[in-house]
Design brief:
This protein is mainly α and about 375 residues long. It has one domain. About 65% of the residues lie in helices and about 0% in strands. The radius of gyration is 21 Å and the shape is globular.
Length: about 375
């Protein structure tokens, strides 16, 4: 992987690793690897307990899987200062950067929306997935990224306070129970846009409070891009991360931690974990230079949009159909559960290998 190391000399390898690991976990969901761990036959076992962490909380509380979307929205923010600094070095003006950000936001919003139209085979108006939400948070973060850190932080907190107020004081009858599924502002907003409430109670309005994740990512990226010492950078990241956890979990008795409607406490708690995860990756990979095996996930971080869309629109299902007869023939004797886990592992490997193939061919699909 010499070429990979050469290519990442002028960029943070930890950034590609964090983004790649997050995307790897996202595409692992399409391989059905995690669902195989929570079948009824495994209930009460260690594997079942691990598998539960890879499923969203039904409502209040937080599992590891609830952090994946915030991680991705945060890491996109981290990459923004690096990307725009590179474009400015090549002579891009602010107007050109704004046009690029606007087009990119629109494309993410469009692609996220289009994914919802595939299964029903008709036009629907849903915007809850990570791409659609990112289309909104990206442009919000861009518009204020030239402001001072204090203003960016204040603006992100303002978004959370506005969201909190809407949930607590929304005046429409039938939607005044702030934190009750289907009876809150988020449910009303879904009906307004889509004509019906999402059965999983995922609120489209989440793009507004979770813009804080992308804004905090921008701030982290600006910090890492600054001339501060590694020690100072680590201190800022750690303090910010712990602060997020203290606020999020400390206020959970007042406002419950609910991912499906992105309550302020959830945004703070998940944002805190994102900052600490970045701090750990940065310390381990870019400061301590422990880079053995990092390339496995860094490759995925170089083509995240392509592999997400490919897996989402049926690529994972197609690979599964092709591999299924061979996997069953070779490993069917191990039992239904283990055979399914092995099959899902093969699907995940082939999804990863597609990204590896694109890297070897120097093909990087971006918008």
């Amino acid at each position: 992987m010499t070429k990979l190391n050469e290519q990442t000399n002028e960029r943070l390898l930890s950034l590609d690793f964090f983004r790649g690991l997050t995307m790897f976990l996202l595409i692992a969901e399409f391989s059905h690897l995690f669902s195989n761990l929570t079948v009824p036959q495994l209930e009460g076992t260690f594997l079942y307990a691990i598998g539960q962490q890879f499923h969203h909380m039904k409502w209040e509380g937080i599992h590891f899987w609830d952090l994946i979307q915030p991680f991705f929205m945060f890491i996109v923010g981290v990459a923004m200062p690096f990307s725009f600094a590179n474009r400015m070095k090549k002579g891009a003006t602010y107007k050109q950067l704004f046009s690029h950000a606007l087009v990119r936001s629109f494309l993410m919003l469009f692609l996220g929306w289009a994914l919802y139209c595939i299964d029903p085979g008709k036009i629907v108006f849903r915007f809850q997935n990570v791409l659609a939400q990112l289309g909104v948070t990206y442009i919000i973060a861009f518009l204020i990224m030239r402001k001072s850190p204090v203003i960016q932080i204040a603006f992100s907190v303002l978004l959370l306070l506005v969201s909190e107020a809407l949930y607590r004081f929304f005046p429409v009858e039938g939607f005044t129970n702030a934190f009750v599924p289907g009876e809150n502002f988020g449910a009303w907003f879904n009906i307004l846009i889509a004509g019906n409430e999402d059965t999983g109670h995922w609120a489209m309005f989440n793009a507004i409070p979770t813009a804080a994740h992308t804004i905090w990512g921008v701030l982290a990226g600006q910090l890492l891009l600054s001339k501060k010492s590694n020690k100072q950078k680590m201190q800022y990241l750690l303090i910010a991360g712990v602060t997020g956890l203290v606020i999020g979990f400390g206020l959970s008795g007042v406002t419950p931690i609910i991912k499906r409607i992105a309550t302020g406490t959830f945004v703070f708690a998940s944002g805190g974990w994102a900052l600490l995860a970045l701090a750990f990756c940065y310390w381990l990979i870019d400061i301590k230079k422990y880079q053995k095996g990092v390339w496995v996930f860094a490759l995925v971080g170089m083509n995240p949009l392509f592999i997400y869309l490919f897996a989402h629109v049926g690529g994972a299902g197609l690979i599964r159909k092709i591999v299924l007869p061979f996997s069953n023939a070779l490993f069917g004797w191990t039992g239904e559960i283990s055979a399914n886990i092995i099959l899902s592992s093969f699907v995940l490997f082939f999804l990863w290998y597609i990204v590896y193939f694109l890297y070897k061919k120097k093909i990087f699909i971006r918008i």
